[in-house]
Every structure is written in C-alpha cells, then in structure tokens.
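During the first year of the project, the team set up a workflow for recording each protein of interest as an amino acid sequence followed immediately by a discrete structure-token representation. This format lets reviewers and collaborators read both layers of information side by side without switching files. As required by the reporting guidelines, we include two representative entries from the current panel. The first entry is reproduced here exactly as it appears in our internal archive.
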Amino acid sequence: MVAVVPSKSNRGFSMAGTVPGARGPEEMTLAERFITAFRLPYALGCVVVGLLLFGLFDTWLSMYAGSLDPWQALRAALTPTTVLTDALVAYAFYLPRYMRTKLSEAGLSLSTLLPGGEAGYRRMFATVAARKPQLVTWFLFLAGLLLAVNLAAIIGTGPASIVFGGGPSSALEFVAGVYDLISLAVSTLGLSSVVWTYWTISRGIHRFGGEPLALRPYYEDAFLGLKPVGSLALSLASAYFGFLALFVLVLVASPSSPSAGDLIGVGGFLAGLILLGLVLFFLPLRRLHRQMIQRRHLEGSRLRERFAPVFQERAEDDVPKDIGHLFRLDMMDRKVSSMALWPFDIRILGKLSVIVLSVTAILISRIVAIILKI
C-alpha cells in the first residue's frame, strides 16, 4: 500500500512507504543524477560540470592541442562567446531541478482537487523520472545537434566542428577530439533534460485537465482552485524561453558570421524549440480552459433562473423583494462575471509574450543580417 504524507516543508510534498520501483515527480532526471554524482551542492555542481569541466577546459584543451600554446588556448577559452556557451550548458543542468521544484510546490494544492489525492498527482507526473525515454531523447538531441553544427561540413561550405588529429600533435589532438565529443554528449544531456522535463510536466498538466476535478466554489476563488496550475505553466514556460533567450544570445555574440549550413541547421533547431515551447504552454491548458468555461456557463444559468422572477413585469407576491436578497443576487452576479476562463492572470501572460517575441525577433534579425551581410 502506498502511504502519502505531506512533508514538513511548505515547499512541496514527499512520499513515504512507496512501492519499490515506483516513480513520481520527486525522482531526479538523468541530468540531475549526473550532477549529484559529483557530490557537490547542486548549483555549484552545475557550474563545475557545465561551465568548467566540460566547458572552458574542453575549449582550452582543443585550442592547446592545435597550437601548443597554453596562453593562446586560455585566451580562446575566456572569450565572451565561449563563456556564454558554457554558461548556457550550466543553466541547462540547473533548469530540470528548478522545474521539478515548481511541480512539487504546486502539488500541495493541486492534489486536493484530484480524486486520488497526492497519490494520483504523483502518478500523473511519474514520467518525469522515466529513464528509457530520457535516454532516447538524449540520443536524439546528440544526433540532432551533431547534424546541426556539422551541416556546413556535410554540404561542403565549412569545416567540421570536431577534428581528430592532423595538427602539430596528432596524439594530443585525438585526445582533445575524444574529450570534445564527450563534452558534447554531456552538454546535450543538459539540453535534452530541459526539453524532456518541460515536455513531461506539460503532458501531466494535460492529463490533470482531463480528470473529474473537485473545483472550488466560484464565490471562494475566481480561478476555481486552478491558479497553481497556471502559475506552474507560466514558471516552466518562462524558464524554458529564458533558456532559449540565452541560446540566441550566444549566437548573437558570435564574432564570426555563420555559414549557410550553420544558419539552416542551428537556426532551424532553435526555431523548432521555440515552436515546441509555445505548443507545450497552451495545448495542455485547453482542457482546464474548457472546464472553466463550462463551470461559468453553469453558474450563469443558475443565476439567471434566480434573477428571472425579479425582472418579471408582474412578479408574484411570493417573490422576495427585500434589499438583502437583491444585494446577494447582485454579489453573486459580480462573482460569476469575474470568474476566470484560464488558470492564470491574463495580464501575467504579457510577460511571457515579451520573452517569446524578444527571442523570436532576435533570431529573425540575426538571420536577416546574415543574409543581407549587414
């Protein structure tokens, strides 16, 4: 039997007595497991792994293998573009932990709306920790990114991004090439985990909207108790598009103009991630949107039935005409009219729109500048 108990912390819930092998939103993703294997505080581990060990050191080793000049290699490793790229990888490793924390925080209130309580909420988001799909996603990202960054070499318009040997020290360059490939695999583990975590939590929100929810009365909460879902969706989308904004900033900060192959490969890769982010924000919330519309229509119909006798030209003698009754009806009308149709404040949606439009505009302007050679 599964026993579910709230944690002492008000930040989320934990599970006690769970069935061996059972998974839930409290289980770590592969990226998190990789970082925690270094036995460091998580944020520090992201910096050490993403920024230093498989970032700056990887660049330094590649440049040193090609020039045998440690100071020239150090200068190359500390360029703004390189540092931004490595910071992006460190941020990518941090985001899955951030997203799962937000999911755990929302679980305390949202689980009360489900028939199965916290156990049902935990099952609904269990795929966040599924290992085999994460491995497949990681492999697809690695293959896709290798194709994107080497598209110029494939179509014959530029060099390959990873070279094994051929320089002043072939053995050292071979080692640097192998380490570079390992670093790329580590980087794509972080990148794929961001998309995987966002995808699975969004799917969980979609399943949540299809459940027979015990919504709160409209006179207690205009959002019917669903605002934590909207806050969760907005937090995830903001973090995801912030990640893409940093990705685009890396491209903008690049001192060299990318080739047509790079433009098609990396630009198409980013455009696909932007489109995916928009779909994963709005599509999972549509079921909740329909439930909120239906509840508003239902309450509006009930209220109109109560208003009908009051507005009849020849009201019956037994129709209440006291001021208190009319005041209550007026208050109910105001409450029904103020019922939300989406599980988030529409005004807050403007912040997400600004981020999305900014990322898209920067990407398009960069592409146009390259095409026009400005």
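The second entry, processed by the same pipeline in the following quarter, appears below.
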Amino acid sequence: MTIVCNLHNGLFQELVSTSTLFNDGDWVESKDQDQDGSVRLIQLADIGDGKFLNKSKRFMNIETAKKLNCTFLKKNDILIARMPDPLGRCCLFPFDENEKYVTVVDIAILRIKSDYSNSYIQYIINTSQVRHAIEGQITGTTRKRITRKKLENLKIPLPPLPEQQKIAAILDAADQLRQKDQQLIEKYTALSQSLFLDMFGDPKLNPKKWKLSYLHEVIEDGPQNGLYKPSKDYGSGAPIIRIDSFHNSIVETKSLKRVNINETELSNFEIFENDFVINRVNSPSHLGKCGLVPKINERMVYESNMMRVKFNTKKTNIVFMLSILSSQYLKNQILNSSKDAVNQSSINQKDVNNFTIPLPPINLQNQFAERIQAIESQKQQAQASLQKSEDLFNSLLQRAFKGELTA
C-alpha cells in the first residue's frame, strides 16, 4: 500500500533517524575558502535535475571545515537545490570519500535511513507534481528560493521498500536510455568543433595564416539595434526575438512572445532568415551571445538589447560564421571591448564592426558547411531519439508518483 506523507510529518520523522539528517548546507564565506584546500565546496551549479553535474571548483581546508562545524557529505545523500533553476531540483551525491566534500547553505541535504530507497526518493522529488508544489512555496522576488522548513512539508507517495526499489530500477533503465541519447548528441557537437579546428585551426593562433578581416568588411547590412518596447506593449502582434530565444546558437521561433507594433516599426526592425542577432547588453557571461535566424513563416522583429547583422554571402558562409561568432576567440574580443554598468556590460555597433576574424577562402567555408550539415543530419536523428526517451522517462515518472508503475 502506498502511503502519502510529507517530509515533516512523514519522511522527516519516518525516513530520518538520529544517525541521519535533513539539514541545510553550510554558510561558507569567501574568506573561509582556500583553493589549495582538500575539501571541495559543492555548489548550486553541481545540482542537476536528477544528475550530479560536477562543475564547481571551490575548496576549503579541513581545519576550517571542522572549525565551522560543516556537514561532510556522504555517498547517496540527496542534495536539493533551494534556488533556481529549476528550484527544488535534486540529485544523489556520487562520491564516497570521507571528509572531502561539504555544500553551501542554499542546498539541503537529505540523508535517509538505509531501509528506504535513496534513488526512489530523489526521482519523486523531481516529479512535476512536487515541482508544482514547490512553486507554491517560493519566497523572494529577485532571488527566489524555498526554505528547508517548507521543503519538509512537501507531500510524496511512499510505498513499501520493495516497490520503491522496483520503481527506481525501472526509472534507472529509462534514465540510462535518455543519457545515451544525450551523450550521442554531445559526441556530434564535439565532432563539429573538431572539424572546425582541423580545417581552420584555432582562430586565436591562426596557425594556417588566414587573412584577418574586420567584421565590417564582410557585413552586408547592419549592425542595427533592435526595437524598444515596454512590457505593456506585449500582446498579440508580431513575434519578437528576445535574449531568451536562443538554443545552441539558433533562434527558436516557435514560442516567441508577441508585441503590438505599427507597420513602420515592423519595417524598421524586421528580421529575416539567415540574419544573425547578437546580444549587445547583458551580464558578462551572456554578452555577445549570438543566434542565427532559421527559416521563418511570418514577419518578426527583435528587441533593443540586440543587434541584427547580415553577412555578405559572397565572402562568408553562414555556417562558418556561426562557428566563429560562437567561439571563445570572439567572446574574448567582446569582453575586452565591453563597457561596464551596474550589473551588466554592453558593446556598441562600432565594437562589432571592428572585431576581427580569420577568413579562409569561401570554397573552404562551403566545404566545412557541407560536412557540418551531414553531422547535423545525424544529430537531428539523435535529438528525435532523445525526445522519445525523454517522453518515456517523464511518462514513467508521472506513473511512479501516482502509484501506477508497479500495478
């Protein structure tokens, strides 16, 4: 029989004994950190949605960790992110070294008794039902979060241990399937990057001595800043490309917000297939982020914190230019040219015109594009397979929450 309980009245008391815990991580300030220390500080960036991402690179020494009375993580601790994105995501901690890892205060540590399934619990916490419940408990406006006390009141189904283990095994198998698809996509992405380096070399070093060209020498139209419209003007008019419309350097046009504009505004700020948009105002990590506009079925515009650029197709291939504009080589030029303001940086049209790129002959750019298109064709098949495996996993996850998976 499935018991529906919450972390406070059910899991917290039922799953957590005196030898285990449900605590926030530790308050570790910059002054407490030591890059030469032996204790790694696990951060929010490490916590994926059901997957430990292993991204952080901050440390402290063991003496400081013990002085601060830090909680050392253990293998299979459930780590729950109390801040976005998404808020409430959780994963199992994968490492088993003693006194080697602690975590920050915005991550909750759930360590349950051995007669319950850690894997099952983390899957259930990541369901859309629990995520929806978390959204109703969020506090803060600019920095949204959920307190551990509110996490304790989340209701989850808790069947007997054999059912938990069976459900977790089914979800593990489905998760492995989608991870294989994701890894295949990552291999195709790496192959594209390797092909660029093989044909053209590192743009920074330019080992093949390609001619260095200013961007203004290969720009046919632009750069032009986009349309400014306050939020009150958003409605049912023309689609508008915004800074959140990018995915893998391609503008996603299917679910764009719309803005009410007149014909003059539409004509002045209209964007077309194979145009590029470049973020001109943003945080340093997103400044200069670029996107290629794919085939579009209706007239659309782009917002004011972007520039639109159209390149000369007799001198450049758009696939080659997408690789260059997305490279660390150009990112470094953008950061070196940026002007800092409060919480954001910016570049202007003159900056973009004066960026330099190594420019191989157009025939080599075209050969590169043909090979990339072949890779992309295989990658699209892998993405279609990933979508199916994602749908299967999410379907099984929903059934698990409803108690239907072991019926």
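For the second entry, the following points were noted during internal review. The radius of gyration is 25 Å. DSSP finds eleven helices and 24 strands in the chain. Both points are flagged for discussion at the upcoming steering committee meeting.
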